[in-house]
Amino acid sequence: MRASHVLVGILVTASLIFAAVGAAMNDTFYLRLATEALIYAGLALSVDILLGYTGLLSLGQALFFGMGAYLSALVLMIVPSFWAAFAATAIVSAIAGLVGGFIVNRVRGAYFALITFGMAQIAAKVVYNTRALGASDGLIGVPVININLGIASISSASPAAFFIFVLSLIVIFYVLSAYLLDTPFGRLLIALRANENRVQFLGYRTMTARLAAYVIAAMIAALSGALYPMLRGFVSPELLFFATSGNAVITVVTGGAGTLVGALYGSLLLTLLKSVVGSYTEHHLIVIGLLFMGAVVFLPRGLMGVVRPAIERMLARETKP
């Protein structure tokens, strides 16, 4: 984990420099784009907890991401308070993750992936056909809010300030996830990925551990999604579609599954590619697909499989007497 922490430190430092330059240049587009990349990094982080550590391939994590976005938008349109929207999203996502976890954790392997995919598709269709939620047009008119931090207040309309705020939240998600996965509970999840049957013989309740991992991932995805309407001012049913879940899986595999930090770097890389390639052609998905195939074939451990060992060797040299 030390190498991952160093890489997160590098990312935070680079992001703060980027925010300072963007604020000095009065930039809006690139700061908003980077903020969106960080929000999707939270979604990828939740996928990595399931796929990289627990060995569960979820193809429907967009269910919780979109749910968090819609719930946050609804709360903000009634009570324009960040803390009210965040608290409501945390409570509802925990309950939804618990209910969904009881359903999906009854099966294993490909059936788990298919059930998560099916649940997300059902939710997407319900939202898409519900007029009260804006149907296919989504919810528009989410107000600009001021986030009261006690000693200061941040406006969601300020590109640099909101970027730093979202960066802080994603880093908090990373720190909490890294701490949790470095405990005996995290070791148990890794053991489940390796051989679930042997874990049962050690006296552990595997269903409970899998359910806990699913609820934690659901909450991280939903809380990340809750930031989306604050950034864009609207939410769309597309946030619940399979493409959102698929992009999160591609992000994790490209960045490096089972590293946590790979989800952050993978999201930034994927967002940058979509923006750059999308400015030249509308067929940017072909490039993303080729990237994913290349990562699987030539970088089976992802980008972090190349970068992290170099950081580890550097740290090892520094600790030698």
Kindly summarize this structure in a few lines.
By secondary structure, the chain is mostly helical. Helices cover 74% and strands 3% of the residues. The chain has one domain (13-239).
Structural summary, described in words:
The chain has 321 residues and is mostly helical. 74% of the residues lie in helices and 3% in strands. The protein has one domain. The protein has 14 helices and 4 strands. The protein is globular, with a radius of gyration of 19 Å. The chain starts with a helix and ends with a helix.
Strand order of the largest sheet: 1-4
Largest sheet: 2 strands, antiparallel
Silhouette: globular
Q: What is the average of the pLDDT values? A: 88
What is the rounded distance between the termini?
21 Å
- Total domain units: 1
Tell me the total number of β-strands.
4
Structural class: mainly alpha
Low-pLDDT segments: none
Order of secondary-structure elements? HHHHHEEEHHHHHEHHHH
Instruction: Kindly state the percentage of residues in helix.
Output: over 70%
Query: What is the oligomer described by this structure?
Result: single chain
Radius of gyration: 19 Å
Number of helices: 14
Proportion in β-strands:
under 5%
